[in-house]
Amino acid sequence: MIKVVYRIADMTCSSCPMHLEAIEDDLPGIRRIKASYQKGTLEVDFDEALLSEDQIKAAVAQAGYTIA
Amino acid sequence: MDNTIWVALITGLTAGGLSCMAVQGGLVTGSLARQLETEMQAAATDSALRIKKQKTPARHQLAKPILIFMAAKLAAYTLLGALLGLAGSVFSLTPMMRGALQIAIGIFMLGNALRIFNIHPIFRYFSFEPPQRITRFIRRTSKKSDSTVTPLLLGTLTVLIPCGIAQSMMAVAISSGSMLTGALIMFAFTLGTSPVFFILTYLATRLGALTEKYFMRIVAAALLVLGFLAFDSGLSLVGSPFSLTQSVQALLQPAALAPVSQAADPFTTGDTLGAELPAASGALSNVLTLQVRDEGYLPRRLLAPAGKPITLKLVSSDTHSCARAFVIPTLNLSAILPETGQQTLSLPPQQSGSDLHFACSMGMYTGLIHFQ
Q1: Domain locations in chain B?
Q2: How confident is the prediction for chain B on average, in pLDDT?
Q3: pLDDT of A13-28, one tens digit each?
Q4: Helix B179-203 crosses helix B57-90 at what angle (to 10 degrees)?
Q5: B50: which of B111, B194, B294, B316 is 20 to 30 A away, CA to CA?
Q6: Is residue A68 part of a domain?
Q7: Residue B301: which H helix or E strand, with range?
């Protein structure tokens, strides 16, 4: 299990975490995901056997957000 | 109709529609996009415009879930408003508490405006994030493709993820202290958001992100104005001598504290109001008469003798505005005046040189009694 914390530059409102956390629906291997608009962060705990960090980054980009 | 309800409607029409669209629009459009994809099976094109051109029935299919969503949202927010108004009435807010609440609403709106302008990340704390459990449930519901139940459920669930402006309106509903007014405020606000919400949702399925990018600044500007007004009327309500409304009135009436004479005030000679007139020049009477008009209180400044109990006669004549809800915050005194008629309030003796501020319950119309 790996835990990563990303800074997300472009969360603009309190509904962004909801959109961002939606990547868990498409990525198997995410154990826990928590985005915070106030802190501007995305925390992901994931199973490295099922998922790579690159896949997470790609999903974040696809959701329309930029990792700072 | 009460002014507050108009304000709620206009807030909804202007800032609310865009703001709510940014927060909630993605849900309904996301859900719709999926429905359209499966129904149309038009794999070749991903442009919403082209899809609409290809098949006319899509318009109908598109409008129905949006309307169901909005109707459910309207019902849910009206109910929420009733509950908030009820909560406000249970706590029976004094004019002072309402003023404080109004100031808090103002600060909340200003904070939200600064948040949207992205002045500093600290302002992000002015926006409440719903718990993850709720957002996850709502998000997953939006992915189901039932064309009636899903928008119905989603519309209802939006009460759990109100946008910043809706949150401010919820505070206004509490401060109304009435179940009916609270319900009407939230109904008017949500109804006001409907046109913009419908048009934007109908026109494009991906406008949520665009809305945020290009229109949120308009929302922020509107919030700045509304926030400032709420803050200012809150100041008037707690009896502060430093509100903008009062400063403007003072500027417009430089001879502010001159004793009020009958001739100087065109409103004191009401034809059916009897002989109760303000104190004539020179002699200070402990019986004061205040005309309650749609546009406020006349005269706005009264002179009264210090150290004596004062009788304040409030005379309304075909008055419909919120000026009828008269409050003296520092004395914790409030009265609902008849549309036409007279009501008398007894004020305790006041110290020489002191001012007693009065206002309508919203803090929009103000004035003061100076004791000497």
Answers
A1: 3-237, 256-371
A2: 74
A3: 777 888 889 899 889 9
A4: 160
A5: B194
A6: no
A7: strand B301-304
Contact residues for B308 (Cβ-Cβ < 8 A; gap 6+): B286, B349
Q: Are A14 and B139 in contact (CB < 8 Å)?
A: no
Cβ atoms of A28 and A50 closer than 8 Å? yes
State the average pLDDT over residues B222-235: 78
State how far residue B18 is from chain A, nearest Cα, in angstroms.
Answer: 13
Q: Are the C-beta atoms of B119 and B224 separated by less than 8 Å?
A: no
- Nearest CA to CA, how far is A15 from chain B (Å)? 5
**CATH code, domain with A44:** 3.30.70.100
Q: How many domains does chain A have?
A: 1
Pairwise CA distance, residues B161 & B154, whole Å: 11
Is A12 inside any structural domain? Answer: yes
Residue appearing with tokens 């309904």 = B28
Nearest of B228, B230, B217 to residue B172 by alpha carbon: B230
Chain B residues with CB-CB distance to A64 below 8 A: 209
What residues pair up with B327 in beta bridges, in sequence order? B334, B359
Q: Is residue A11, in this structure, part of any structural domain at all?
A: yes
- Average pLDDT of chain A? 89
Q: What is the CA radius of gyration of chain B?
A: 25
**Class of B256-371 in CATH:** mainly beta
As a whole number of angstroms, the longest Cα–Cα distance in chain A is: 33
Stretch B232-260: mean pLDDT? 65
pTM of the model: 0.58
Tokens 């809706």 found at: B166
What stretch of H or E contains B174?
Answer: helix B164-176
Q: Is residue A67 part of a domain?
A: no
Alpha-carbon distances of B106 from A55, B151, B226, B227, B305, rounded to whole Å: 44, 33, 7, 4, 36
Q: Could you tell me which chain A residue has the CA closest to the CA of B26?
A: A19
Quote the CA–CA distance of B72 and B155 in Å, as a whole number: 5
* pLDDT, tens digit, 9 for 90 and up, residues B80-129: 999 999 988 877 667 777 778 778 878 887 887 888 788 888 888 887 77
B22 contacts in A (CB within 8 Å)?
Answer: 13, 15
